[in-house]
Amino acid sequence: MSGFELDARPVAAVVLSSQLAYGAVGNNVIARMIERAGHRTVAVPTVLLSNLPHYPTVSGGAISDQWLSGILTDLLDREALAQASYVVVGYLGSPSQARIIAEWFLAARGRYPQLRLILDTAFGDSDVGLYASEEVAASYGEYLIEHAWLMTPNAFELELLTESKIHDEQDAANAALDLMDAGPDHVIVTSAPTEDADFIGCLLAIDEENLEQFDTGRVQTEAKGAGDCFLGMLTGALLSDVSLIDAVAQSVAGTSEALSGVHPAFTVTCAE
């Protein structure tokens, strides 16, 4: 059946997140960055929207459980994940989606043990608070965190996930290690605190003995999608056999350049 495919490359990653007709967030940018790194990507929407909810009007909504389950089942039936390395999960449209994705991921990993789950708990940020419901935020922990290989929460999300307060780098490190006790092998904390307010941090917790902090200058912008840009660049780098430390460093620098509008790989800035 693969003879029907114009792109004969094996699928390297499956991305499940929001999808917009107009806007560079969710699948629109995560999958784009992975493809730019040279890897075939399957993008499965959890919600379909006309544009970001920050505009005066927005149309669309969450994909139904029946549609999501059917799409994921069909991917297994097509053997689309036979050579894939990562399943990347971001924004969810309903709590039931976390359960559906978790059950599907376990079935997929049963067939293809090489699969690893990269989980971005995309439910809130410090500037806006929760932008998903409390039920959706809780569903990540209820169904997905225990299966994750790598997680990429921001500091706001990490506080909620670990029921802690993060004021400085040590707080972020302690919370990241606490989160690792719940499942993931590694944690990356985006928007992590730094000693200098002119900088923003990205903390990588490889294990209890190995923590790395990457600081970059703050970029004044109202653009949305920086976390998705980072996630896509990170996954693309990992698929290109870049080490985790180097992949984080490259993705931090690339996201900063994208927000500044100077990244050479962009014809349009990654975050919109």
Quick structural gist:
The protein has about 270 residues and is of the alpha/beta class. It contains eight helices and eleven strands.
Outline the structure in words.
There is one protein chain. The protein is an alpha/beta fold. The protein is 38% helix and 22% strand. It is built from 8 helices and 11 strands. It has a 9-stranded mixed beta sheet, sandwiched between helices. Helix 1 packs parallel to helix 7, helix 5 packs across helix 6 (169-180) and helix 7 (226-239) runs antiparallel to helix 8. The protein is globular, with a radius of gyration of 18 Å. Mean pLDDT is 91; it is low at 264-272.
Please write out the topology.
Elements (H helix, E strand, L loop, with lengths): L10 E10 L6 H10 L3 E10 L10 E3 L2 H13 L8 E4 L5 H17 L4 E4 L4 E2 L3 E2 L3 H11 L5 E2 L3 H8 L6 H12 L5 E7 L6 E9 L2 E8 L8 H14 L4 H17 L12
Parallel strand pairs: 1-2, 1-4, 4-5, 5-8, 8-9
Antiparallel strand pairs: 2-3, 6-7, 9-10, 10-11
Distance between the termini: 38 Å
Arithmetic mean pLDDT = 91
The amount of beta strand, in percent, is 15-25%
The count of helical stretches stands at: 8
- Element order: H for helix, E for strand: EHEEHEHEEEHEHHEEEHH
Query: pLDDT below 50 for ≥5 consecutive residues: which ranges?
Result: 264-272
Radius of gyration: 18 Å
Shape: globular
Question: What's the story with the biggest beta sheet?
Answer: 9 strands, mixed
The total of beta strands comes to: 11
Secondary structural class:
alpha/beta
In percent, how helical is the residue content? 25-40%
